[in-house]
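Quick illustration, no need to memorize.
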Amino acid sequence: MNDRKQHVINMSHQLFIDKGFQATSIQDILDYSGISKGTFYNYFSSKSELLIALFKTIYKKMEQDRNELLIGQDPSSIEIFIKQIELQMNTNKKNKLISLFEEVLVSNDPDLKQFIKMGQLRNLHWIYMRFLEIFGENKKAYLLDCAIMFMGILHHNVKYYVMAYGSNTSTQQVVTYSVERVVNIVNEVAES
């Protein structure tokens, strides 16, 4: 990706954070990033396509960083998995992606909604594959259900802790607790 296109993505990201995706117009993006309308449409067919490019850029970097945590490590290590989930959550927090996801979910844009849905499925698949590495093939039959439960446990624990303790909530504590819960669930399901 060229530097100018990345500049437009970065400037738009700031506008989406400050004003919200829906409230940011293409003219706002042109003014803030200092490009012409022709340049914008040379890079993106729409504001929605720009948002998808923003998500892809952030998640490509996050996935690279997440995979680097595994280099030279035991893939079955729960501690490495916790660090990977923390990294993912901190990436979302730092880039204020949750509010952008929420705006997409209430939008009328089917392409954006489909992109988010596919992202959630990719994340579920990644968690499932990591669970296979962590818990082993002998528990494979239970691990997709456990990956789904883990996503729900983590999501709701984050919401609860933020409501109860505000923004001072420790990501590490929430992730560690959620992972410990799913480890217990996997073991209980495997036993029964």
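Residues 110-135 form the longest helix (26 residues).
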